[in-house]
Amino acid sequence: MTAPAGTQPRRAGGHVPAAVELRAVSRHYGRRQARVRALDDVTVAFAQGSWTAVMGPSGSGKSTLLHCAAGLETVSAGQVLLGEHDLTAARDAELTALRRSEIGFVFQSFNLIASLTAEQNVMLPLKLAGQRISGKLVREVLASVGLEQRAKHRPRELSGGQQQRVAIARAMVTRPRVLFADEPTGALDSASARQVLGLLRELVSGNGQTIVMVTHDPAAAASADSVLFLSDGRIVDHAHAPSAAEVAARLAGLEG
Ligand SMILES: Nc1ncnc2c1ncn2[C@@H]1O[C@H](COP(=O)(O)OP(=O)(O)OP(=O)(O)O)[C@@H](O)[C@H]1O
């Protein structure tokens, strides 16, 4: 199915290129009777500088979509394009390099390394990518998430919201083309969640960052520019700038 045009907004002066695009992507698990079609012929383009939330009932394929788009999972059919790179045609070494330089990933459970300080966690992707580590850049990225005073703190010395902001700084330090977020506010209280969503908004509006975010929370989804709804591995609905109440109503319709 082709996603509605709103997923790939047009702006004055022409067409906004896609940061990441899925073309007729399917992903199956298992064989024969046990076969599950987690994604079923999904075509969607996420425009540069857009923030899209992905919602749907449990098991509808949200995480599978995110993982396939980020090159963390192979697809059974179709193509995933990250800018000019075809992830589905990339060899392992190229895929690893693309994941390190072009993709940022933020998880519900933060996934920070407990023994490292905030700044060491933020440096890690640069180290892994074999890039020069600039202390100035690391300080700037930590400052951009409001944690310049916490550089030397370890994760256990930080609140959940602060840990997630370190995780966002870590994901952003390589200046990725796309930031993928899997339930980034799922483990946070509502005040910390609002702060993290405010930070994501700044990244999109201030830096033109592209964000694709899976969430179960209608309020979080309503913070994005648009919301895609999945059901049984297919895109079944799309809303542009909906309110949290509209998101909740559409989701209830799918879960019904
Ligand atoms: N490794 C796997 N092996 C077999 N089936 C899988 C695997 N991963 C996911 N699935 C199945 O694929 C379907 C989609 O799963 P996915 O995790 O993408 O859904 P989701 O919408 O993210 O769900 P939730 O909201 O519960 O996290 C489900 O039926 C799930 O059981």
TrEMBL record:
Keywords: ATP-binding, Nucleotide-binding, Transport. Residues 20-256 form the ABC transporter domain. The keyword Transcription does not apply. It comes from the Bacteria. One of its GO terms (cellular component) is plasma membrane. One of its GO terms (molecular function) is transmembrane transporter activity. It holds the Pfam family ABC_tran. InterPro entries: AAA+_ATPase (IPR003593), ABC_transporter-like_ATP-bd (IPR003439), ABC_transporter-like_CS (IPR017871), ABC_transpr_LolD-like (IPR015854), MacB-like_ATP-bd (IPR017911), P-loop_NTPase (IPR027417). This is ABC transporter ATP-binding protein. It comes from Prauserella cavernicola.
